[in-house]
């Protein structure tokens, strides 16, 4: 197996996990956005904890 096949197979596997029977009505743009968010989170570009902290700071500034 070539090394270039591994990321491709991971992308297809991730897509299969996202596109389940319960989610088969996602429009293509929503599906793509969800896949991008999943990849960004997996690669450390997006963090739920840091986003919560940022939102809490914004809320505190409004108070």
TrEMBL record:
Full protein name:
HAT C-terminal dimerisation domain-containing protein
